[in-house]
Amino acid sequence: MEQTKTKTGCLISSSSMLEDIDEEVKQLVPTLPKSMDGTIFELSLYQGFWFPTKLVQLNGVLSFQRCFQAHDQDIIVSSIPKCGTTWLKALIFSIVNRTRYTPSNTPLLTTNPHNPIPFLEFHLFNSKEIPDLSKVPSPRLLSSHVSHSLLPESIKQSKCRIVYICRNPFDSVVSLWHHYCEMFTDFEMPMEEFFELYFKGVVSYGPYWDHVLGYWKESLEKPNKVLFLKYEDMKEDTVSCLKRIAEFIGHPFSEEEDRNSVIEEIVELCSLRKLKNLEVNKNGMYMGKSPNKAFFRKGEVGKWVDYLSPSKKQHLENVMEEKLKGSDLSFKAFYLRFISIKQ
Fold first, then answer.
1. Element containing residue 269 per DSSP (H, E)
2. Mean pLDDT, to the nearest integer, of 21-26?
């Protein structure tokens, strides 16, 4: 029988822990504040962040928090949804496995990037069993949309590396809106209304501001633990960002690899154009539920201007300025004035 360490270091059976979590969830869910994000999913506010109620009911978040045991060699890709997660997963998988696979035989040609780097809270732990990850080859490549404050203590206390990607909130909203349009046939919320909801924080895994700032502050305090990436920077100079990622996760490129254009090969392999046009991503399904094509659209910077009136744009820029005040976190995007907030 599998066993899991508690916070005190004691070993208990996984089945016993799941029974306790099941009972806790039954009592917890009815007490949580509820809302909707414009989709068929009801959201519940758990420990300051909005989650699909179904994800909490199926124990995904709580099981991940209580039962996941991080290894020092783990590499965890983290983000709030629709900030370049799929792209980053493809890049990191290719960096780590570049001596194992070539661009002509990599699994990325036949599977969505979310499969080789699975989500912890709604893929691995979102079931009635605690997954046995002990036999997964090192380094284990894992991912999560959970905020830093809600991560398991084993992640925070271990030497595992977290690579976090964010995107300016204006483009994130547009990307998420289109994602929902692909995922839900009855999603009919107007774009400007969805913008308003997103900036209020009522969105899966949001509020955006708290999510981004949590990882941002941790990256400043522990730069060897958390690498904070911006989607716009990666689009502007992917090669330099790839070198930075490889160095951070302990798989730096050699001078010979640099000369032989290995980095450029990975950039091309993982490009949106390449991934989007693969048969698996045009017609395949993720976890048997979501069309893979919903994870690939345009990946452009600054296209949000096509969806907002000038007055709404100004209002939301003011919201953004207030939310980021004092953080020194800034976003630079096409058609978006450079915002650098300082106290």
1. helix 262-269
2. 88
Say if residue 330's pLDDT is above 90: no
Computed on alpha carbons and rounded to an integer, the radius of gyration of the chain in Å comes to: 20
d(CA 245, CA 249): 6
For residue 312, pLDDT beyond 90? no
Q: Which two tokens stand for residue 48?
A: 């300051």
Residue 206: exposed, middle, or buried by beta-carbon count in 10 A (0-12, 13-18, 19+)?
buried
314-328 pLDDT tens trace: 888 889 889 999 999
At what angle are helices 310-323 and 191-200 packed, to 10 degrees? 10
- 179 in catalytic set: no
* Distance between CA atoms of residues 140 and 49, nearest Å: 27
pLDDT of 342 higher than 60:
no
Neighbours of 26 (CB within 10 A): 10
Answer yes or no: is pLDDT of 210 > 70. Answer: yes
Please tell me which residue in 71, 114, 145, 211 is annotated as part of the active site. Answer: 145
| Residue pLDDT, tens place only, 248-295 | 999 999 999 999 999 999 999 999 888 888 887 778 667 667 766 666
φ, ψ of residue 236 in degrees (nearest 5): -75, -40
